Amino acid sequence: MQQHFPYFYLTVSTDTKIRQDGIFCPQCGDLITVAEGAGLSCICCSALYNFPREALLGWIGRIPSLIGHTVRGEFGKSGNVRGRPFLKKVHSRLRRMDDQSSDWLRSQFMTREDKIYFAPNVFAFYPNNWPRSGPRVLVAKEYFDEVLFTGSRHTHSDFHAYSDMGGNFLQLCIFGTWHQMTMRSVLQQRIVTKIIIDLMVADLVAVGKLNEVVGSLGTSVHSLYNWIGKSGRSERFQQEYNRHVQIT
Question: SS3 of 11, please?
C-alpha cells in the first residue's frame, strides 16, 4: 500500500465512530494511525489511544489528481488558475467565501508550488469477516454536495454512492468479486478510475453540459459510469467530453 499510495495511513476505527464521524483525533482533528509499539497515535499532536473493541482495520488517505495550476496568485484567494473547468469553478467559489467558510473546501485540494491537485480524503475499511465480504470505501457527503457536483441536482446514487449507516459518509459502489482482492487492488482498479470519471463529470457540470452529453449518448448519469467501461464506448464519451470541455 505505501509504495502505491504514499498518502495513505493505516488506522483503526469502529462502526460507531464511523457513523458518528469520530474517526479523527478528538484533540486536534487529525489522522489517528497505528504507532509502532504504542497502540494508536495522532500524526499531528501525538496523542495516544487504546485499540477499541470490535475494531475495524482500515486506511485513510488521499489520491491526488492534478487538475491545474495557479497563475500569479494563490489558489482560492488571488490571481487566476489554469486547468480544468471544475478547478476554475472552485477557485471562483473560494474567492467569494470568507476564510472560515472556505477552510473545508480548500482542504480537499493539495498544492505543490503552482500545481493544484484534487485530493479528498478516502476511507477504506476491512469488514470483520474480510475477505468473505468486500471492503467499505467511503467519502464524505460533501465530496458530492459541496465539492464536485454542487448545483447538478442529481442524487448521490446517480454517482454510485450510497448512505452508510446514516452517518456523514457515503459508501462508493464496489461490484463483483472485489472481496477477493487486496485493498491496494480495490483502490487502484475501482476507486482511482471512479475519481477520474468523477472529475470529467464535474467538468461537464461546471460548463453546464452534463445532461446534454448523457442525452447525446442515450444513457443516464447513473448508467454513464458503467457505460464508459464497455468496449468502444469510452472513446465515444471522450469525444463528447472534448467537444464541450477545453482544459487551458
Answer: strand
